[in-house]
Amino acid sequence: MTGGPQLRCALIDDFQGVGTTVADWAPLAGRVEVVSFPEHTDDEDELAARLADFDIVVTLRERVPFPGSLLDRLPRLRLLVASGMRNSVIDHAAAARNGVTVCGTASSSTPPVELTWALLLGLARGLVQESTALRDGGPWQQTVGADLHGRRLGLLGLGKIGSKVAQVGLAFGMDVVAWSGNLTKERADEVGVALAPSKEELLASSDFVSVHLALGDRSRGLIGAAELELMRPTAYLVNTSRAAIVDQDALLAALHAGRIAGAGIDVFDVEPLPADHPMRTAPRLLATPHLGYVTRANYATYYGEAVEDVIAFLDGSPVRLLG
């Protein structure tokens, strides 16, 4: 695709306003006008109006769904670039029907591993409570930290992210066990952790439980009220994977009742969270606004490869196709 008037590219949900600075967009100069939108909207009418004049859209992860009903309203759209090589909120059949090419980018598994440990350590040592009290003139030492060394870390999922989380746990001297519906002893042995005989045993025996599963029919709602009841009252739950794996209402009830010691959550059923959402005020909760993949190096990869995707598409040889 060459010649003709300059095309327009929208970077949507660029919350930090860094999309045009973490990568070099100069190769597109004169061919594509790039416009950043830091504001999020869930309203399909607003999205359709906002994107009506754009030929290319770059979207981050799964922040914005692209169902057929939206794609049908964007007749000018020709290229949709999504960060990562898997996106469950794009209707690929509708994209193909509308002549929209969908491409992805690489994505590092390291940032969510690091955030998992930030949440776990923050919970274990009461960092938010202690830091807030220190800065606000509150009590000097009010929590008693939970030890990691010698304690059990239970991992739901032992893929790229889960296995890296396991290695850090082992370095802390933790007893690491893992379970998933298709996890084998050979895979667990390869990573150097024990295979839990069941999900229930892992939940009942672990001091820390961390979720690292892909969202699918088998994992949706995997942790509900019954599963949270199995956990020790001194145990902590961390979820940096997908919100729908843990029943949000059940988790809120467990936190308010003190059935578990706390939770570290980076993913939510609704994002961004509404100002009055109960997760914003839940007790025993350390929450972050879906920061798992949000690092400078990962963004440089996302947007840098988005530029490559656009160039390849314009030159008639699209790369990293999704569908």
Helix content: 25-40%
Shape: globular
Distance between the termini: 21 Å
The chain-level structural class is alpha/beta
CATH topology of the largest domain: Rossmann fold
Q: How many helices in DSSP terms?
A: 11
CATH first level of the largest domain: Alpha Beta
**Most strands sheet:** 7 strands, parallel
Estimated share of beta-strand residues: 15-25%
What is the CATH homologous superfamily assignment of the largest domain? NAD(P)-binding Rossmann-like Domain
**Topology, number of strands:** 12
Physical arrangement of strands within the biggest beta sheet = 8-7-6-9-10-11-12
Description:
The chain is of the alpha/beta class. It has two domains: 7-108 and 295-314, NAD(P)-binding Rossmann-like Domain (Rossmann fold, 3-Layer(aba) Sandwich); 110-287, NAD(P)-binding Rossmann-like Domain (Rossmann fold), CATH 3.40.50.720. Helices cover 32% and strands 15% of the residues. The strands form two sheets. A seven-stranded parallel sheet has the order 8-7-6-9-10-11-12, with helices on both faces. A five-stranded parallel sheet has the order 2-1-3-4-5. The protein is globular, with a radius of gyration of 22 Å. The protein starts with 6 loop residues before the first strand and ends in a 9-residue tail after the last helix. The mean pLDDT is 96.
Can I get a quick summary?
By secondary structure, this protein is of the alpha/beta class. The protein contains eleven helices and twelve strands. The chain has two domains: 7-108 and 295-314, NAD(P)-binding Rossmann-like Domain (Rossmann fold, 3-Layer(aba) Sandwich); 110-287, 3-Layer(aba) Sandwich (Rossmann fold), CATH 3.40.50.
